[in-house]
Please model this.
Amino acid sequence: MLTTISWIALGIGIGSAIIIAIDVFNHPK
Model:
């Protein structure tokens, strides 16, 4: 159970980082 939660949290973290990176590259300020 803890392992599953850890993987989900890790996946969300990586996903968010990728989304933010793409957003920054697509919309540089």
